[in-house]
Amino acid sequence: RFTRRMEMGGDQMTRRIQGEMNLSYDDAEKLKRDKGMKGEENLQALLKSEADRFIVEVQRSVDYYRAQFREGIFKKIILMGGGALLSGFSEYFATYFDSRVEIDDPFLKIIGGESAGSIRAIGPRFSTTVGLGLRRDL
Q1: What is the pLDDT of residue 72?
Q2: How many Cα neighbours within 13 Å face the side chain of 25?
Q3: Neighbouring residues of 65: CB distance < 8 A, sequence distance ≥ 6
Q4: How confident is the model at residue 47 (pLDDT cuts 50, 70, 90)?
């Protein structure tokens, strides 16, 4: 009933790590992916700061929806994109909402061979692409 695409996420986190820790982009990306929000305290603080910006935007969307449709309860929030795969992110995100939080699996209803398992591990990165591909009225 309500969707919103936000152009914020993992890249902003990587750039923040890069700038604050004086690392190359590739080293910052590797650190983010390897440690995530369960890394050292200074890394956690940087990632949580960026995650909080995202959470505020989601809260604004929830408030807008509630004002427009006069409904108070969300059954679930689905996280999509590569940032959803960040270690500890979905758990941190969920602490701010009363609804169930899930990481999207866009390949759930797509039948594939044995190699499909490796792509499912990074499935949230393809949520928009798969969704557009499955639309009937393109």
Answers
A1: 67
A2: 4
A3: 2, 71
A4: very high
**Sequence-separated (6 or more) residues with CB below 8 Å from residue 84:** 90, 103, 104, 124
The type of residue at 87 is S
pLDDT tens digits for range 23-45: 999 999 999 999 999 888 999 99
Q: What's the whole-model pTM score?
A: 0.77
Specify the higher pLDDT residue, 132 or 61. Answer: 61
Q: How many CB atoms lie within 10 A of CB 116?
A: 12
Quick one: CA torsion of 124, 130, 134, 138, rounded to 10 degrees? 130
What are the two backbone dihedrals, phi and then psi, of residue 100, each rounded to the nearest 5 degrees?
-65, 140
Inter-axis angle of helices 10-21 and 25-35, nearest 10? 110
* CA-to-CA separations, 13 to 17, 19, 128, 135, in angstroms, rounded: 6, 10, 21, 31
